[in-house]
Amino acid sequence: MTTRDFLFLLGSSRTGGNTETLARLAAEQLPAGTGQRWLDLRDLPLPDFEDRRHADGHPAPTGNSAALLEATLAATDVVIASPLYWYSVSTSTKRYLDHWSGWLEAPGADFRRRMAGKTLWGVTALADDDPAVAEPLAGTLRNSARYLGMRWGGVLLGNGSRPGDVLTDTEAVTRAKVFFS
Predict the structure, then answer these.
(1) CA distance 14 to 129
(2) Is the pLDDT of residue 1 over 60?
(3) Rounded to the nearest 5°, which phi and psi values hold at 59?
(4) 26: helix, strand or coil
(5) What confidence tens digit (pLDDT) does each residue in 91-103 have?
(6) Closest of 123, 33, 132, 36 to residue 79, by C-alpha
(7) Could you give the CA distance from residue 91 to residue 97 in angstroms, rounded to a whole number?
(8) Hey, CA dihedral for 5, 149, 137, 57, is it positive or negative?
């Protein structure tokens, strides 16, 4: 059996929010020995992405970009844990995904080939009773996975606004316990 290594990318603007709480609850259910690496995108800020494909090309990533590239490529499973902000992912999460475009062109990264076959997951908390409002977020992640030949694991939705509210969403808590199965 292949060992799985999960990379959890926290894209919230606050620590310990509902999305992180839900992601950690789901991660508690992973089998013993499953690797877990948790990175908060606030601790690894990226500059705005500049598309240089048709100019002088993308240089090899440095700094936080290189660290995130390395962590992303080392994982078998990438979990985007972003609250639903204006019906999509957070700014830091979107910036991270934008940098994937540069990594596709970065010398020696071989990003597309190395991402193929990994699994992309989403975890989000929303403050709306209608889960359909999260479809733009799910679509962003699902289509990103498809573009790179990744498997789409799905998105775990929970409802909550104030920190800890998601724990009262009994359906989300139940889904979290089997989400990564």
Answers:
(1) 22
(2) no
(3) -75, 170
(4) helix
(5) 999 999 999 999 9
(6) 123
(7) 10
(8) positive
**pLDDT band for position 77 (cuts 50, 70, 90):** very high
For the chain, the structural domain boundaries read: 5-176
Buried b vs exposed e over 143-174: b needs ≥16 C-beta within 10 Å? ebbeebebebbbbbbbbbeeeebbbebeebbe
What is the dotted CATH code of the domain comprising 5-176? 3.40.50.360
Token pair 């790179």: residue: 148
**Cα 173 to Cα 102: distance, rounded to the nearest angstrom:** 36
Helical spans, DSSP H, in 28-169 = 63-74, 91-105, 111-115, 135-147
Query: Among the residues of the chain, which ranges form H helices?
Result: 18-27, 63-74, 91-105, 111-115, 135-147, 170-176
pLDDT category of residue 59 using cuts at 50, 70 and 90: confident
Amino acid at 139: G
Q: Which amino acid makes up residue 132? A: A
**Which letter does DSSP use for residue 152 in this model?**
E
User: What's the pLDDT band for 82 if we cut at 50, 70, 90?
Assistant: very high
Quickly tell me which residue has 């908390």 as its tokens: 125
- Residue 68, judged by CB atoms within 10 A of its CB (0-12, 13-18, 19+), counts as buried
* pTM as predicted: 0.96
Percent of the residues in the chain that have a pLDDT greater than 70, as a whole number: 99
Which residue in the block uniquely carries the two structure tokens 């992405």?
A: 49
